[in-house]
Each structure stands twice: as structure tokens, then as C-alpha cells.
Amino acid sequence: MVSDPSGNYLGYFNDGQTAANHEVDVAFGPSGLLFGLKGAAKDQHWTYEGLQPVRPVPKTGPARLRYEGAAEARLIIASPQFAQQVLQHAPQLGTSAGHKTTAKIAAMCLAGIIAFGLFGWLILSAAPSTVATLIPNAWWRYMGAQIEATMIKSAKQCNGAEGKKALARMAFRFADNVEADTVRVYDLPIINAFAMAGGRVVLTRGLIDGASTPDEVAGVLAHELGHVKARHPEAQIVRVFGLQLIMSALWGGNGMGDAMAQGGAMLAILRYTRGAESEADAIAIELMKKAKINPKGLADFFELVKKQPGVKVQESLGQIGNILSTHPGLDERIANIEKLTVGPTTPALSDKEWEALKAICK
Prior knowledge:
By secondary structure, the protein is an alpha+beta fold. 48% of the residues lie in helices and 15% in strands. The strands form two sheets. The protein has a seven-stranded antiparallel sheet with strand order 4-3-2-1-7-6-5, with helices on one face. It has a three-stranded mixed sheet with strand order 8-10-9. The model is unreliable at 1-5, 97-102 and 311-326 (pLDDT under 50).
């Protein structure tokens, strides 16, 4: 939603005390943002001077905001128009404490690489998760963007307005617990989803088309967000490519593209161990419980996928195939989810939102 005729923007507010996200109408006032529950009178006033970014706000959105004196509260608005307008009123939102210039980031990364070299390849192979945490997030976001571009190539991003709004609604139900930089849908027939370095998540049209309910898509999204939270994509890159690739990327070389162009490299990045898949499942279950979405939606989707015939992989995607090729050990994972005792839940999306999401690529 860009804005309604009154100039309001759709946002999601969480007070930091509960897991609930509330839809709010957000408007620009003379001295700050005004917002309240959707359809109700404005009852919150956040001054422009007091606004703080959860992370620097890009001009393309989304804006994830907090407020001085209410550090636990969060206000999230997806609209690019809102992001551009709020940056005019509160330019401090475009930066954050500790924000580094590209040169400083490169210097820090180089210092880290030198330190890694002292420990050698043994550290890279034995403790990839530890090594991954030592590399600045700005560089991981760069790496994730490169992986996404290499994997997707010429595939069209699905931008149906109502479908994107429904996807945002689903993602925001998990926003209190873990945030992804971007969640995108691409017009690809394969049934799969991918978490990439830097918090990027990709869903495919084939996955949404194949799902029977929004809870199944929510389960897959929660699983990928579990990989994000556990930093599995970053650890996997360190494990697969090691110090040579990190150094090549930091120096602006073509090591990333060259390495992934070699047979099986992309599949190696995206194929996690059974232990990593189990950990992501456990995080997904907790995310879904807190959001009051039935975790059994993930098991239902895995059951559906098992019944599907093999999906021919598009030539542009090399060796990346359907979800069975990158998510092993489904039977045991289904059994673990089916054992769960589930309390009261609500569907991940309304019927109208679900129909919009299924039409996001049309």
C-alpha cells in the first residue's frame, strides 16, 4: 500500500511487550509521525527528532523505526514513498550508530582476513559459524545480493501489489522474532525457497502455486528465517569457499562469480546439513508458535512436495532443483513436527490475502 487518499500509510506496530503486531494508519504531522490502530483516532505521536532506525532506512523502504524512550517498540512501514518522505523529515534515519564508510569496512575486513590467515584453513573448516560472525554484516549483504543475482539471472520478480501486501503481512507476523532484509518472490516454476547471506529470502512461484494453504507457505518462510537467524548461509559460504573467496570479494575481484560458475558450487551453498535443517525447523516452530500460526503447516507442505513428480530444472538455474534437492531428510522432520501439541492458532493469511498472494506473479 502506498497511501490512502487521506495520505495515511499502512504500518505495523509492536509495543515490545507482547508478540502481537497491530495494523496502524501512519500520517505525517507538523512535528512528528501520528498513528493509531487502523480505522481509529491517532493516539501515538513520535517526534521526528526522536525517531531512530532499527537499521538505516533505504529510499526504497521498508522503514523499521523505534523511538527514544520506547526502545522496545517497533513501527514498520513497507512503502517506498513513506521511506523517502520520512528521510526528508528525519535524515538521521539514513544512518545508524557505528555506520562505517566503505573504506573503513574494507579495512576491517582486511584486518579480519589477516587474522584468519594466522589460524589457517583448519579454523575455516572446523568453525565456519564462528568465522562468519567476525565478518561485517555489510559485506554479507553484498554477498547475498551477488548470490541472488547469480541464482535468479533473468527470472522476473513478482510484484503484484496486493500479493506483496499479503506477503508483507505474513512476514510481519514473524518480525518481532527475526528480521530478513528482503523477502522476494520470483517467477520460477521450481518448488523451493532459499535463505541467503545477509538476511535475503527468496520464494518461488512454484512453491506458492503448490501450497494448499497459507500456513504451508508461512511454514516454509519461517524455516528460511530460521536459517537466517542461525546464520547458516554465511557459515556455509565460509565452509564451501573459505578464505580465498572472501579475499577475492573484498578486493573487488570476480572470485564470487567465477567460483559459483563452477559445477555444483551454488547447490553446495544452498544445501545445508541435516543438523542445520533440524535447527532451522526448531526455530521455525518457535516462530510459528509465537505468531500463533499452526506449525503443522510446514509438515503439510513437506508431505505435498513428497507426492510431486520430479521438477525439471531450468537451464538458467544450473544444478538447483526442487525442494527435495536442497532440503534432505523430510520423513524424520515431518514426524518431529507431527508430534507437537499445538495450542490455539489463526491462519497465516485471510482468504482474501491468500488469493492475492497466489496471484502475485500474474
